[in-house]
Amino acid sequence: MTVTPIDLFASFVRLDRSGEIHAEKRPMDLDQDGWQLTAFYARTDADVHADHWEVHPEAEKVVSCLVGKIRLYLRPEQPGQEEEEIRLTAGTAAIVPRGRWHRIELDIPSNIMAVTLPRGSRLEKRTEA
To answer: Which of 46, 49, 80, 108 has fewest C-beta within 10 Å?
Structure first.
């Protein structure tokens, strides 16, 4: 097998339960089995769909700020509670619990990496309180 570099910012990397790893140039099928590693450069809040909540019902998610500064928000679990804000700077990460709605906003343009099991993932438009 020939080993070649993978451009993480142009690929989706799938880690199968079988132990195989696949790099794909197109968006992955969210119903495929296996974990997904995604790295991307975010210039504006639109690049991280800051106006939407996201949830992954089948697994936790690691969100890492590789370069820059971002804010990870967790949606309140009970009415009347505040959003939980986690500030991430270069080289830090946070684990989003399974089934917890979350979103990202940028402080400055940033390189972000995320790892999750995407099966069943959903987006929901954020409404202002």
So the answer is: 80
